[in-house]
């Protein structure tokens, strides 16, 4: 990251940062406050484009504060962005891959220089605390660089194949991975930098041109990523940034035949609709989907309970439970259940809740009124059908009344209750006890999702867990986070079953190839 320090910020190291990070964050926060309320255009074909209709980007910690005005793009803007990307594709795709890599690396360097400004915007737009926001920005830089690394390590994905045994001819073969064309990236609110930037960087390095469409809750963060690409000198039309409702602008993009591939991160229901809509074209087009999780942590009687308590609560309530990797289900052996639950409640009650730009705060607000209402509905179910151990209420006193603040909640529920299966995406985690480890594994796997999972127990038990759990990212005995903390090149992020479509994890050794298709080149000449 930009700070001159031996410290490397990741989601695993963020809990004890050097003082310099807070100093630089505070400097960026002061700059941010001088730039509130501005009108931010879309970027189409290298130009700022403004629409007749606007929408306000408001701070979920203080809904009186308008962060900025953004454009309510429509089908006309979707078509313009796609046309620009299509025009730019021939030149960009035939550029030397080394030159594309150089431009994407330059954008990553600019992003690194602007890390704290991006982090402050994210805190204010999403409700991420300081270190979560800076971690998202740093992860985006890492994803940009990792995509470049993979292209370089694979020498542009050109591989010499066998020579045909033809008498009188010389027949050679070569495998070349080539870009698809125009790629659409639809990103969610919860990681607005990494989940916009990561797919965009991979698509660009591979030679595709891109249209970026962020969530309406977080348009500013994505705009800052687009500005880094623009300022790095990525040619006009190679990337395009559009904003507006998913139901109108987003649907117009998805239905347009100019799209050659799509990366979507979001809810299972929306993702499956995109999958079906996108499949109605003349041929199959690549569809990369990451669709959430219902992530378990299993704790045995042999676990280090302090590590388990810390790891579970960090993963359950980081970003207010609004991570698709959040630990939302905890299965605890009956012999250690009371002891562990007591410690989890104690740790949960210590979390500071408030303005996420405040250095003392761990939990900010949930992102919008819809999530605020969801929390209240789920809490009512917990009151009626289960036992709330802590939390279960919204916070409305004083300054809390201006935002969407919810108490972190631990609750006991029967395993048959629907909330053991349903992704809530708010700060609520259910806990339950088991007597047989095989039964715990069965409960852990009996969901539609398979994104992340955590385990606390002996080393032999941990290996058994890896062999039996149905999840794409797994963690063993990790106090830094039971189910969260993936990082490019370390724990690449992706899911099984209803959590992902590709079987390859973002930030991993197989991900960049998803943005290219293979062409075999045979060359014959008489010997």
From TrEMBL:
Keyword line: NAD, Oxidoreductase
Reaction(s) catalysed (UniProt annotation): L-glutamate 5-semialdehyde + NAD(+) + H2O = L-glutamate + NADH + 2 H(+)
Keyword NAD: yes
Pathway: Amino-acid degradation; L-proline degradation into L-glutamate; L-glutamate from L-proline: step 2/2
Active site per the UniProt annotation: 290
GO-annotated biological processes: L-proline catabolic process to L-glutamate
Domain Aldehyde dehydrogenase: 53-517
InterPro entries in UniProt: Ald_DH/histidinol_DH, Ald_DH_C, Ald_DH_CS_CYS, Ald_DH_CS_GLU, Ald_DH_N, Aldehyde_DH_dom, Proline_metab_enzyme
Top-level taxon of origin: Bacteria
Gene3D superfamilies hit by this protein: Aldehyde Dehydrogenase, Chain A, domain 1, Aldehyde Dehydrogenase, Chain A, domain 2
Enzyme Commission (EC) number: 1.2.1.88
GO-annotated cellular components: cytoplasmic side of plasma membrane
Molecular-function GO terms, alphabetical: L-glutamate gamma-semialdehyde dehydrogenase activity
Name the record gives this protein: L-glutamate gamma-semialdehyde dehydrogenase
Organism: Longilinea arvoryzae
Native organism taxonomy: Bacteria, Bacillati, Chloroflexota, Anaerolineae, Anaerolineales
């Amino acid at each position: 990251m930009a700070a001159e320090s031996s410290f490397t910020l990741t989601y695993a190291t963020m809990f004890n940062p050097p003082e310099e990070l807070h100093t630089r964050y505070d400097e960026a926060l002061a700059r941010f406050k001088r730039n509130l309320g501005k009108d931010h255009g879309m970027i189409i074909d290298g130009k700022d484009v403004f629409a007749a209709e606007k929408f306000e980007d408001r701070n979920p910690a203080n809904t009186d504060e308008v962060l900025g005005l953004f454009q309510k793009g429509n089908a006309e803007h979707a078509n313009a962005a796609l046309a620009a990307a299509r025009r730019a594709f021939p030149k960009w795709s035939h550029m030397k891959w080394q030159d594309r890599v150089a431009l994407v690396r330059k954008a990553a360097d600019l992003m690194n220089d602007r890390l704290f400004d991006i982090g402050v915007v994210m805190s204010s737009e999403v409700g991420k605390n300081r270190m979560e926001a800076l971690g998202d920005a740093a992860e985006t830089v890492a994803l940009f660089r990792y995509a470049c690394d993979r292209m370089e390590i694979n020498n542009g994905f050109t591989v010499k194949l066998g020579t045909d045994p033809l008498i009188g001819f010389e027949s050679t073969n070569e495998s070349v991975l080539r870009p698809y064309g125009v790629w659409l990236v639809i990103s969610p609110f919860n990681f607005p930098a990494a989940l916009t930037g990561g797919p965009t960087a991979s698509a660009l390095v591979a030679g595709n041109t891109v249209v970026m469409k962020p969530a309406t809750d977080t348009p500013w963060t994505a705009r800052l990523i687009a500005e880094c690409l623009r300022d790095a000198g990525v040619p006009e039309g190679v990337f395009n940034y559009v904003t507006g409702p998913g139901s109108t602008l987003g649907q117009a993009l998805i239905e347009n035949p100019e799209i050659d591939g799509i990366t979507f991160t979001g809810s299972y229901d929306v993702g499956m609709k995109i999958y079906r809509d996108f499949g109605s074209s003349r041929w199959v087009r690549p569809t990369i989907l990451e669709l959430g999780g219902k992530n378990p942590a299993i704790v045995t009687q042999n676990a280090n309970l302090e590590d388990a308590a810390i790891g579970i609560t960090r993963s359950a309530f980081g970003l207010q439970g609004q991570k698709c990797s959040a630990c939302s289900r905890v299965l605890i052996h009956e012999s250690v259940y009371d002891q562990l639950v007591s410690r989890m409640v104690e740790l949960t009650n210590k979390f500071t809740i408030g303005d996420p730009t405040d250095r003392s705060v761990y939990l900010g607000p949930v992102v919008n009124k819809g999530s605020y209402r969801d929390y209240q509905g789920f809490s009512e179910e917990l009151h009626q059908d289960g036992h709330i151990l802590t939390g279960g209420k919204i916070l409305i006193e004083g300054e809390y009344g201006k935002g969407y603040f919810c108490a972190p909640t631990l609750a006991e529920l029967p395993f048959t209750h629907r909330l053991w299966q349903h992704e809530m995406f708010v700060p609520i985690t259910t806990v339950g006890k088991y007597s047989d480890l095989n039964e715990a594994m069965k409960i852990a796997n009996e969901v539609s999702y398979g994104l992340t999972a955590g385990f606390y127990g002996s080393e032999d038990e941990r290996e058994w867990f890896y062999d039996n759990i149905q999840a794409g990212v797994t963690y063993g005995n990790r106090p830094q986070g039971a189910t969260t903390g993936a990082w490019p090149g370390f724990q690449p992020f992706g899911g099984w079953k209803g959590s992902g479509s590709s079987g390859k994890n973002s930030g991993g050794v197989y991900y960049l190839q998803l943005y290219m298709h293979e062409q075999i080149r045979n060359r014959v000449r008489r010997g």
